[in-house]
Structure formats: structure tokens, C-alpha cells
Amino acid sequence: MTTPPTRGEGEEREGPVIRDKRRIDPETGAVRDPAGAQPAPPQAPVPPAGAAPGGGGAPAADGALQTQLAERTADLQRLKAEYDNYRKRVERDRVAVREQALANVLNELLPVLDDIGRARDHDELVGGFKSVGEALEAVTGKLGLVRYGEKGEPFDPTVHEALMHGYSAEVTETSVTDVLQPGYRIGERILRPARVAVAEPDPNAAAPGAAEPGGAGDGGQGGGKS
């Protein structure tokens, strides 16, 4: 029978090794630090989106905000300009519609005003007819209707319509010699041009101060010859 070898005095006995890995000490209740555990290395802060590397996050964020602010300001300015143009266009259209409606009404009254003017020229504007005529002329005047066209005024083709033409030695420029039908306007708008007769300076008329043949000048020359 073989006898198992015996261990020397300096040799350790081999056997199961039990390690307590509980994190809580059952006796004290304290949290144990794992043996040999290394502390986790500190993590670098994550820069915000759009931040420049190397710690320049704050200036980059400010630049992005400034850019957005400039864009929104430009949008508001453009919107305000569009609104101002729209408001001016609406106001201009409103005035134009009012003037056109007023012009249409007054155009219908022009024949009546012509009859009143002819009656006045023939001394027939009397009695109740005179009161009605003067009241109508006053109302149309308050609405801005202006009558124009007078004898002797310079001819203007933009406001006059020449129905008759002639020459005269009494005028120095093309002038109105007779008003056949008065003109009417509202502000700068011509409702009806004044229909007139015009005359131009006579090209055959002698210039003022010109010596006539056989006048004093010729007589003086004759006297010198005799």
C-alpha cells in the first residue's frame, strides 16, 4: 500500500478560497469600496451644437443668435414696407374711385349748367328758375367743379378745343377770341374742354413803329435832293 506524500512545513495547504464581494458590510452596513477599483476618468463636457472646438462655444452661440436676429429684423422691415405700400395703394385707389364717381355725376349735370348759362346771357334767368340755377351752381362748386374759358386768354390746346380759327392784327399770340362753350374741370381733371374760337397774329400786318412808304423819311430825302 502506497502512502501519499506528506507536505513540508513551509508549504501552504491548497484549498478553496472564499472572497466576500458584497458591497454592503453585513456588520457595519457601510458601503464597501471594491478592492482595486479605479475612479472613472472625468468626462469632458459636450460642447453645444454649433460651438467651435477648443472652448469657443459661447462666442459661436452668440454669433448664431446675432445672425438669426438680423434675419428676423430684415423680415419685419420687409413686411412693414409691403404693408405701407399696400395701404398707400388702397388709399390711392379709394380717392380715384371717389373722383371717378363724382366726375360721372357732374358730367350728367353739364348740359343743365349750359342751359342756365345761356338763360343768364339772354337775361332769362329770373324768378324761381334763377334761385334753382344759382343753388345748383353753388352745390357743384362745393363739389369742386370749376368753370373756365374767357375771351382774350392765351390758347392752350390741353384745356381748349379750337372750333374756329382766324388771324388778327390785335393779338400778339394765339388767343381766345370767343367762347362757344365753357369748359369744366375738377382739380387737374378736365371734364370738358372749353370750345373756343382762336386767332393768331396776322403775318401780313405791319410791325408797330415801321415807316410807311412815302412817309416822313422819304420826304426828308426828297427835300435834300431839291
UniProtKB/TrEMBL annotation:
HAMAP family, A to Z: GrpE
Compositionally biased spans, kind Pro residues: 39-50
Protein's organism: Actinomadura vinacea
Compartment(s): Cytoplasm
Biased amino acid composition, Low complexity: 199-211
InterPro entries, alphabetized: GrpE (IPR000740), GrpE_CC (IPR013805), GrpE_head (IPR009012)
Protein name listed in UniProt: Protein GrpE
Coiled coil location: 69-96
Tree of life domain: Bacteria
Function: Participates actively in the response to hyperosmotic and heat shock by preventing the aggregation of stress-denatured proteins, in association with DnaK and GrpE. It is the nucleotide exchange factor for DnaK and may function as a thermosensor. Unfolded proteins bind initially to DnaJ; upon interaction with the DnaJ-bound protein, DnaK hydrolyzes its bound ATP, resulting in the formation of a stable complex. GrpE releases ADP from DnaK; ATP binding to DnaK triggers the release of the substrate protein, thus completing the reaction cycle.
Keyword Secreted: no
SUPFAM superfamilies referenced in this protein's UniProt entry, alphabetically: Coiled-coil domain of nucleotide exchange factor GrpE, Head domain of nucleotide exchange factor GrpE
CDD domains, sorted: GrpE (cd00446)
Stretch list, region Disordered: 1-64, 199-226
Keywords, in A-Z order: Chaperone, Coiled coil, Cytoplasm, Stress response
